[in-house]
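Tokens as discussed.
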């Protein structure tokens, strides 16, 4: 959320506390409210170090503070349910809204029992502060009670002076559960409560994007950019809305938005890919080539760069693969992903990818991937030659699968070597198949043997 004067004061407190940690001989005084504010602020920025130091300070100077005890329980929950439950067990006499919420999470009730217990907690307490609202919404989501939040929204409104926080936390829960129809309702109200908060309008635009309501999304993001024209996240959302609304008409404007963002950070592959999609929609091969080349010069090890070069620069495949291999050893799974991505477009390039992989890493599953693309291309002779060349390669033979057996047998048949196919399958079935394969895989080989017999037609 956008900062206000109160948040700015909290940040100053947070920075003063952080600075004091390096000069413990002259540590300034922080009262209980200061520590609660610092702890919550540190939590917003995932600063676990400061959160823990606040708890140490509190344990020394405010051992009986209920708000800080609550936050200690929350901190333990961050790490594990067991730590949380141990703390709750050791502090059964402590009674607060947050402690009751955490006990509910530890109990993990379901269905009507969960709703009854949530209602009981809410009825016992007349007012909720920000952290209590956050924990209640989080707990309802954790035990599968999103619908309870919807049903009790009017009750919860009357329990808090922080309606914006309540609505914001409900939006967080709804988004986590992919209920963007519900997010829209609370965000529409939030933008009315805080009409000059760029974050609310950006969230509204993002919600409309998820709902594929692009015109409404563009209207919302324009409000965000009217408040802060430099908001990068809002600019990215606008580019995506324009592109999704009409990829042909929206691509040039979306590209104009994304270009300076990509140029400021070449390692942001998500942004580079979004810009690439715009250029593809514009059918601008010159800009495609320039973008891939530019990003490639900064992050040559990127799979995205290699993928793009394989797809959009197919005449230079050998160099692309050699340069990629030279950036360092890659796991087999990376090569397989590259092959499968480009294989949908051109299986011939996929074969080259896996051939390069075989020379740069130890293959296991990759042998079958290579054979599949060779078989798909009808390169039966090449497939049989590869088998012969790797007959003594233990990496190849130890990873032989029923599918590979099938492809080799069919390749032998396709090149007119029917008798060799029969001998190959029979030998494999007798020696390796019975010992290595599961019953279902064994049935696969037996069926293939029968198929070959049928091909001979009684010869």
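Sequence:
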């Amino acid at each position: 959320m956008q900062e206000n004067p109160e948040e700015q004061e909290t940040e100053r407190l947070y920075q003063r506390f952080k600075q004091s940690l390096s000069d413990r001989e002259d540590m300034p005084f922080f009262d209980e409210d200061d520590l609660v504010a610092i702890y919550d602020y540190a939590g917003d920025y995932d600063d676990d170090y400061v959160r823990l130091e606040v708890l140490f300070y509190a344990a020394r100077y405010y051992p009986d503070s209920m708000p800080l005890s609550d936050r200690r329980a929350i901190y333990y929950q961050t790490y594990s349910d067991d730590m949380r439950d141990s703390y709750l067990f050791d502090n059964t006499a402590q009674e607060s809204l947050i402690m009751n919420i955490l006990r509910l999470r530890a109990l993990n009730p379901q269905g009507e029992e969960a709703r009854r217990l949530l209602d009981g907690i809410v009825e016992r307490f007349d007012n909720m502060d920000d952290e209590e609202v956050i924990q209640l919404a989080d707990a309802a989501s954790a035990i599968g009670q999103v619908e309870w939040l919807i049903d009790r929204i009017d009750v919860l409104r009357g329990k808090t002076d922080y309606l914006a926080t309540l609505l914001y936390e409900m939006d967080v829960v709804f988004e986590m559960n992919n209920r963007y129809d519900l997010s829209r309702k609370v965000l529409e109200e939030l933008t009315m409560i805080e009409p000059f908060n760029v974050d609310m309008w950006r969230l509204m635009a993002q919600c409309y994007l998820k709902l594929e309501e692009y015109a409404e999304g563009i209207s919302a993001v324009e409000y965000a950019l009217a408040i802060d024209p430099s908001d990068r996240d809002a600019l990215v959302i606008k580019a995506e809305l324009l592109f999704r609304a009409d990829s042909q008409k929206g691509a040039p404007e979306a590209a104009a938005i994304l270009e300076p963002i990509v140029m400021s950070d070449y390692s942001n592959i998500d942004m580079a890919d979004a810009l690439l999609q715009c250029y593809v929609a514009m059918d601008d091969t010159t800009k495609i080539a320039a973008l891939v080349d530019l990003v490639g010069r900064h992050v040559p090890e990127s799979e995205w760069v290699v993928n793009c070069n394989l797809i959009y620069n197919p005449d230079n495949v050998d160099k692309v693969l050699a340069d990629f291999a030279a950036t360092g050893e890659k796991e087999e799974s990376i090569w397989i992903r590259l092959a499968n991505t480009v294989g949908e477009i051109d299986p011939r390039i996929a074969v080259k990818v896996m051939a390069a992989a075989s020379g740069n890493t130890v293959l296991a599953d990759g042998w079958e991937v290579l054979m599949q693309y060779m078989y798909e291309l009808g390169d039966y002779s090449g497939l049989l030659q590869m088998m012969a060349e790797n007959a003594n390669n233990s990496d190849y033979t130890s990873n032989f699968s029923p599918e590979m057996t099938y492809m080799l047998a069919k390749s032998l048949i396709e090149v007119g070597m029917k008798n060799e196919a029969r001998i190959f399958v029979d030998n494999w079935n007798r020696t390796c198949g019975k010992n290595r394969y599961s019953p279902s895989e064994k049935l696969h080989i037996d069926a293939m043997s029968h198929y070959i017999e049928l091909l001979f037609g009684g010869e």
